[in-house]
């Protein structure tokens, strides 16, 4: 992009036209905003389809090469529209549909459109011919998502919470229920991954949690659910049907199923385990599982294509994402920084009585890792379910052993350890991985170490680790942050007197909770769009997040008031001692602004040093300018507070500060805070509703982000 220092991009693959795989739709940068583009792989040319003042995120393409996008307002409500691939007028997907929030889109082979829309508390599914009038198929009084339509438009799949009695509902086109698949009880949670792409067979792909494993499964009208025990994994998986049966020339594996209804029963499985990804091809009729070779690292997205081609989006911590095609298909370039990014990147495991905690640690150039401070891939210890006691709230104590700088000694041959920022992921059904992160890039280039901790509750380590909240919601995760902090200091890798926290959404919630419950351990904090008051957030957030709170806490605030109070940051606002930057959004539906204002008022009443920054946006913004503004403000704030740069430590006022070049502080010559030329768009959500509920997938047209438990992180600044 010319005339700007940054670009935004969506870490997802293009959606491919089923009838002509050379025609694709993808989301990319357009003058600092995410917009939808059409891509012709034959010519290598892209055409911008949308141009909206606040950007466009949701886009896809149907079998007839129409490019779709969601035309939403500043509050996230809107309607689906489409345009022919080569250009033309913008047309309504269906007429007579009221505006709502997007909850799934699916288009069958004959142009029948199904769309799910939410209004805060209910979900409605509409059906009709593309561009024609709609009729209501069903309405449910809860958050749900349309997760698929059959090729012949005879059946629809609706996804609810994966652990509920209505995890998946299959409807006929007239709204008549055909099956209700439970994810409750002994059967284990259940996720819907879309119908088979052939009109010869109505088969819905599923993932089921079974004790401490995830199993591939499927449902057919004539047989019901069938599980495949030979296709089991000990961490989260997602899967997609091969569009033509998965025939791969030159591999000697032969065709699958032959002619008839069983042709095409091959799926591509992506597993995320311990922060890295692997791909497998599963042939359901023969019961064979074959590894698909990919480089070590993370796959942010992967999709099977016609002719056995596989598209995947690869990255690791040192390399920004790149799109690949196993068949050499031309894919659009992402607007990311080229080559390797600075820093020494390693993963570490912190032993605790309740099981090892996995951390991705990035150090500035020149600090390095001593030998023996990491574990190579494949040697990670087993993760056991913890059994822990809740932490006591600790007052600041400058003499406590964990706060004494003398405890940290740099290993021989290395310079003084750097200040460290704990970049806390959101979710909680998510995890940090061996993947590029623009915030990590900025911090490391500015001289900070960065620790990304996969605390208990994170995905990627099996169901037991995911369910481990023994000390209480949030408090369990803070315990793990504290343990990793002590480990890094004990190894001499970071400064004990310069430790900061930075989290977004649920990660921002954990940052606030850690600052309040363990105030003596941190020297600065940044909370972006956080949950700051658990009860107030519950009263004003979305229905999906209220359901999540009820699952985590075991009820509503009226049912279990003590649990909410004990885990709420506002309860500990008077204990906060470290300077704090709070960033919030005026139209945030997930982490509403009112509960943040209440927390800021509590900080003021307690005399706690803090600053605030308000964005005129929602929770998931698509404009790069907001992300860059927050990134700059946060890095300057951390530079001042953790390294004592010129200009002092700030005041109790809520005004911003600036840091001049060439400043000096306790850590010697200071590097100016840097913003890399690439920044990433994100859904930094406190909860990944599409993942936790097993939603976000609609066969043929919806961008398929469904993942059993997990969702790839998209951390905005």
Please give the number of β-strands: 39
Average pLDDT confidence is 82
The number of helical elements comes to 10
Q: Which band does the percent of strand residues land in?
A: 25-35%
Query: How many whole angstroms does the radius of gyration measure?
Result: 25 Å
Please give the oligomerization state of what you see: single chain
How far the N terminus sits from the C terminus, by CA atoms, comes to: 20 Å
Shape: globular
Give the strand order, joined by hyphens, for the main sheet: 29-30-32-31-33-34-35-36
- Helical content class: 10-25%
SS class: alpha+beta
Largest sheet: 8 strands, mixed
Q: Catalogue the unreliable spans.
A: 249-261, 374-379, 382-408, 646-717
What does this structure look like?
The model is unreliable at 249-261, 374-379, 382-408 and 646-717 (pLDDT under 50). The longest helix has 20 residues, at 624-643. Helix 4 links the parallel strand 33 (499-504) and strand 34. The chain starts with 6 loop residues before the first strand and ends in a 25-residue tail after the last helix. It is 14% helix and 31% strand. Helix 3 (475-490) packs across helix 4. With 717 residues, it is α+β, with helices and mostly antiparallel strands. The strands form ten sheets. It has an eight-stranded mixed beta sheet, with helices on both faces. Strands 2-3-4-5 form a four-stranded antiparallel beta sheet, with no helix packed on it. A four-stranded antiparallel beta sheet has the order 6-7-8-9, with no helix packed on it. The chain is globular and about 65 Å long.
């Amino acid at each position: 992009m010319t005339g700007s220092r940054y670009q935004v991009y969506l870490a997802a693959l293009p959606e491919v036209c089923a009838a002509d795989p050379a025609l694709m739709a993808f989301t990319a940068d357009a003058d600092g905003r995410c917009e939808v583009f059409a891509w012709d792989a034959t010519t290598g040319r892209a055409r911008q389809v949308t141009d909206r003042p606040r950007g466009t995120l949701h886009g896809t393409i149907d079998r007839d090469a129409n490019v779709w996008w969601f035309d939403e307002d500043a509050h996230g409500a809107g309607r689906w529209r489409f345009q022919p691939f080569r250009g033309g007028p913008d047309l309504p997907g269906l007429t007579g549909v009221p505006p709502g929030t997007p909850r799934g889109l699916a288009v069958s082979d004959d142009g029948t459109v199904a769309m799910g829309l939410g209004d805060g508390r209910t979900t409605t599914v509409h059906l009709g011919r593309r561009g024609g009038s709609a009729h209501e198929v069903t309405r449910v009084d809860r958050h749900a998502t349309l997760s698929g339509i059959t090729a012949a438009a005879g059946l629809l799949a609706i996804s609810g919470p994966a652990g509920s009695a209505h995890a998946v509902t299959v409807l006929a086109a007239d709204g008549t229920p055909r099956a209700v698949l439970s994810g409750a009880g002994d059967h284990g949670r259940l996720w819907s991954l879309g119908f088979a792409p052939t009109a010869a067979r109505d088969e819905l792909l599923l993932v089921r949690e079974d004790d401490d494993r995830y199993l591939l499964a499927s449902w057919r009208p004539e047989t019901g659910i069938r599980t495949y025990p030979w296709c089991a994994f000990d961490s989260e998986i997602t899967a997609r049907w091969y569009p033509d049966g998965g025939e791969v020339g030159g591999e000697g594996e032969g065709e699958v199923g032959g002619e008839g209804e069983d042709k095409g029963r091959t799926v591509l499985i992506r597993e995320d385990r311990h922060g890295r990804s692997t791909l497998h091809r599963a042939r359901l009729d023969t019961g064979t599982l074959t590894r698909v070779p990919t480089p070590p690292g993370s796959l942010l997205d992967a999709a099977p294509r016609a002719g056995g081609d596989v598209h995947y989006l690869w990255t690791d911590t040192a390399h920004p994402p790149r799109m690949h095609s196993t068949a050499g298909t031309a894919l659009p370039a992402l607007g990311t920084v080229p080559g390797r990014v600075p820093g020494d990147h390693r993963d570490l495991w912190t032993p605790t009585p309740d099981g090892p905690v996995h951390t991705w640690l990035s150090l500035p150039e020149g600090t390095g890792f001593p030998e023996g401070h990491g574990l190579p891939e494949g040697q990670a210890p087993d993760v056991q379910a913890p059994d822990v006691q809740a932490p006591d709230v600790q007052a600041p104590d400058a003499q406590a052993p964990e706060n004494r700088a003398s405890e940290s000694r740099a290993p021989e041959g290395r310079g003084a350890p750097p200040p460290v920022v704990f970049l806390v992921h959101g979710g909680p059904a998510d995890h940090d991985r061996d993947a590029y992160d623009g915030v990590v890039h900025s911090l490391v280039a500015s001289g900070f170490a960065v620790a990304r901790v996969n605390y208990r509750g994170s995905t990627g380590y099996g169901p037991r680790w995911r369910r481990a909240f023994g000390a209480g919601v949030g408090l369990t995760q803070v315990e793990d942050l504290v343990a990793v902090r002590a480990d890094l200091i004990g190894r001499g890798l970071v400064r004990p007197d310069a430790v900061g926290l930075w989290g977004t959404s649920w990660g921002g919630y954990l940052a606030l909770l850690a600052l309040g419950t363990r105030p003596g351990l941190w020297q600065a904090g940044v909370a972006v769009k956080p949950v700051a008051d658990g009860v107030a957030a519950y009263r004003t957030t979305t229905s999906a997040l209220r359901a999540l709170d009820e699952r985590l806490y075991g009820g509503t605030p009226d049912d279990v008031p003590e649990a909410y109070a004990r885990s709420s940051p506002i309860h500990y606002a008077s204990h906060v001692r470290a300077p704090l930057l709070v960033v919030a959004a005026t139209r945030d539906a997930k982490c509403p602004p009112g509960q943040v204002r209440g927390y800021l008022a509590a900080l003021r009443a307690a005399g706690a040093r803090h600053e605030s920054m308000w964005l005129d946006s929602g929770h998931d913004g698509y404009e790069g300018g907001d992300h860059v503004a927050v990134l700059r403000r946060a890095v300057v704030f951390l530079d001042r507070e953790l390294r004592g740069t010129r200009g002092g430590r700030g005041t109790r006022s809520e005004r911003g500060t600036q840091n001049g070049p060439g400043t000096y502080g306790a850590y010697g010559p200071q590097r100016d805070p840097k913003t890399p030329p690439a920044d990433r768009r994100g859904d930094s959500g406190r909860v990944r509703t599409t993942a936790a509920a097993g939603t976000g997938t609609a066969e043929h047209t919806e961008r398929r982000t469904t993942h059993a438990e997990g969702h790839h992180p998209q951390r905005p600044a």
